[in-house]
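Support request from a user on the community tier.

User writes: "When I paste my structure tokens into the form, the page sometimes reloads and wipes my input. The last time it worked, I copied everything first. Here is what I submitted, just in case something in the input itself triggers the reload:"
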């Protein structure tokens, strides 16, 4: 038992670091508060995970069709799929019965812990030092930007990369094929938890790493080929899981465009927390930070230069340039700082070549990987007088679907384990001179880095009770809901996220949702029809909602952007009893149920591709009907018809078709005018 504890004591040490540094999360668990911000990103993330849980446990195919933006299909791929995260939530939230809030908090703690252990293994293997591993793990755990992005679990969840790099190092050192298999397992995990980082890892970082391994002669071409082949089953599995992604983005009305502003400039290499904000308040203005600040960069330089007398001038020169960038960034001199950054990179490459025989080989390898990968995402436009150029832009021309990845500076985060190891290597050079005080030096270093980068938490209360406005809507009934007011893009484009978390209380489908993920034109069309119509509800708009979005319920929330009073809505609804009725009313909301109960021969609905494939239509009549009923895709195909003999309930199959991503309009025709009380989607 003692041997086991000694061998794996690092796991407990890293857990202790996580609990000490991220203790506000524990406070959040005790108080049942979310450790990170709730509005609006966390609402969106939690709603996706809730839907994924429900889908996997009830109807797995629905996991691709997030229940927003009806009648669009494959909506899951408009944003963050969160498949891996969902599995953790199923275990903790559904099976263990832990609340949604505390499952979220526990996920954060587990992520820091698991990621820290992976970085430790990678660092220990490269540096051959337990202290080096603990140092690298501490840098990872104290990384402030992780707290800033913790509400975006898909961006936050890149904690498998340390394990991938660890097993690759073990592979090229020992040439045991089991390590290729293990790395494949963790590559799959990374893709499952974050396809964003998984893509950059698989498509850019790993090819660059193996190219360097060939150049450094760590591996020969045959070994690289065999390693790649051993990864194929895991890569194929990821392709099978995420295959709708590319076709969805290309076929839907959601079009994203590559922006050079999303690339990396030198200011994003620096970060600092509240400890240094008091000394230099302007540090708070540096947004989207990527790596822990000045202290860590100093030791990264030591990893290359060493600290003997011959190199002290070089070290001082390099450090002064970083300090200059640090100061100039605070003044907004982006062009100068980017020029200096490029100069530093050139100097470092020269140094790696000039002192190639005395720099630790693995550090040289991973530092080159760091530089090359960084340059792929570097924004050269400010350096070139505004001319838009980047290496990533060249890749984009070769593969246009890459334009669907936004906020590309986040692709740099996969380098954090490598950066942590390089910084730790610098500290280990000092410790080798003072081995007796090694543990003390590591503790003091981590204490300083922790203080330098502390970002802080602000736990927030999250009410998990069902709002009263959903009590009259049957749960899991394939109903379509529009919630008002709608916020349009450019004016609070994510504010509809406050509605989306509520889908967990009814598991039905929303017409609206997080507008940042919906095409501007289609969202404005809904906005103009509903929000700009001061007379809502009126017949024309209600007919539009029924025929174009198959809306069953409209929930009107009292809000200054929807100025009609509840009494006015009640008055107008009484005049439209053949198309809508109030089914619930409260102090702050009104729930309308829409249905066309007047006599007519044709009914138009628009359904999602998922529903067209997996559901039937049930028509509930006001009386018995005898005659022909036709169902067709409006304007495209001839209808499939059935003969009904004296029935008040008619079940219709949709035509055999391959519907568009955005859904299809269905035309239901009768021989004579009829009264249809309800048109419902029902299980096949």
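"...and here is what came back when it finally went through:"
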């Amino acid at each position: 038992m003692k041997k086991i504890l000694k061998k794996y004591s690092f796991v407990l040490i890293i857990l202790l670091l996580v609990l000490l540094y991220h203790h506000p999360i524990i406070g959040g668990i005790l108080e049942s508060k979310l450790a990170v911000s709730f509005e609006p990103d966390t609402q969106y993330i939690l709603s996706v995970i809730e839907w994924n849980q429900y889908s996997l446990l009830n109807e797995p195919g629905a996991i691709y069709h997030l229940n927003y933006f009806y009648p669009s299909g494959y909506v899951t791929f408009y944003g963050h799929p969160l498949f891996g995260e969902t599995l953790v939530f199923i275990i903790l939230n559904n099976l263990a019965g832990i609340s949604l809030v505390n499952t979220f908090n526990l996920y954060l703690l587990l992520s820091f812990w698991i990621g820290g252990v992976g970085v430790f293994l990678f660092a220990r293997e490269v540096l051959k030092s337990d202290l080096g591993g603990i140092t690298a793990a501490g840098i990872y755990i104290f990384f402030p930007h992780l707290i800033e992005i913790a509400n975006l679990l898909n961006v936050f969840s890149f904690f498998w990369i340390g394990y991938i790099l660890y097993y690759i190092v073990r592979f090229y050192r020992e040439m045991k094929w089991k390590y290729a298999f293990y790395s494949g397992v963790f590559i799959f995990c990374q893709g499952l938890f974050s396809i964003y980082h998984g893509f950059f890892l698989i498509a850019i970082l790993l090819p660059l790493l193996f190219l360097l391994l060939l150049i450094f002669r760590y591996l020969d071409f045959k070994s690289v080929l065999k390693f790649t082949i051993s990864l194929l089953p895991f890569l194929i599995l990821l392709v099978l899981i995420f295959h709708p992604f590319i076709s969805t983005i290309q076929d839907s009305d959601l079009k994203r465009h590559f922006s050079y502003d999303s690339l990396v400039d030198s200011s994003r290499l620096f970060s600092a927390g509240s400890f240094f904000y008091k000394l230099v308040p302007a540090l708070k203005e540096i947004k989207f930070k990527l790596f822990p600040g000045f202290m860590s960069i100093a030791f990264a330089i030591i990893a290359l230069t060493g600290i003997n007398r011959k190199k002290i001038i070089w070290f001082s020169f390099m450090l002064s340039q970083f300090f200059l960038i640090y100061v100039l960034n605070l003044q907004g001199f982006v062009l100068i700082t980017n020029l200096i950054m490029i100069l530093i990179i050139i100097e470092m490459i020269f140094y790696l070549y000039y002192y190639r025989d005395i720099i630790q080989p693995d550090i040289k390898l991973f530092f080159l990987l760091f530089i090359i990968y960084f340059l792929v995402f570097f924004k050269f436009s400010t350096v070139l007088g505004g001319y838009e150029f980047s290496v990533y832009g060249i890749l984009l021309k070769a593969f246009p679907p890459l334009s669907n990845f936004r906020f590309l500076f986040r692709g740099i985060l996969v380098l954090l384990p490598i950066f942590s190891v390089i910084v730790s290597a610098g500290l280990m050079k000092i410790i080798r001179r003072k081995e007796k005080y090694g543990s003390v030096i590591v503790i003091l270093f981590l204490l300083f880095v922790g203080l330098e980068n502390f970002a802080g938490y602000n736990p927030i209360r999250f009410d998990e009770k069902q709002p009263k406005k959903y009590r009259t809507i049957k749960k899991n009934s394939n109903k379509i809901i529009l919630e008002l007011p709608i916020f349009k893009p450019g004016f609070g484009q994510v504010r509809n996220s406050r509605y989306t978390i509520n889908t967990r209380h009814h598991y039905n489908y929303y017409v609206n949702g997080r507008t940042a993920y919906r095409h501007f034109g289609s969202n404005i069309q809904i906005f103009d029809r509903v929000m700009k119509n001061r007379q809502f509800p009126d017949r024309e708009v209600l007919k539009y909602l029924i025929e174009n979005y198959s809306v069953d319920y409209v929930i009107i929330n009292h809000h200054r952007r929807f100025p009609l009073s509840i009494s006015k809505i009640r008055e107008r609804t009484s005049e439209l009893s053949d198309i809508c009725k109030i089914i619930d009313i409260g102090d702050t909301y009104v729930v309308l149920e829409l249905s066309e109960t007047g006599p007519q021969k044709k009914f138009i609905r628009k359904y999602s591709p998922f529903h067209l494939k997996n559901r039937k239509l049930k028509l509930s009549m006001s009386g018995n009907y005898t005659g022909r009923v036709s169902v067709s895709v409006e304007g495209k195909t001839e209808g499939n018809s059935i003969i009904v003999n004296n029935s008040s309930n008619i079940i219709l199959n949709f035509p055999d078709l391959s519907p568009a991503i955005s859904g299809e309009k269905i035309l239901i025709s009768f021989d004579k005018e009829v009264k249809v009380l309800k048109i419902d989607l029902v299980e096949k």
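Agent notes: The reload is a front-end session timeout and is unrelated to the input. The two ends are 57 Å apart (CA to CA). The chain has a mean pLDDT of 84. Escalated to web team.
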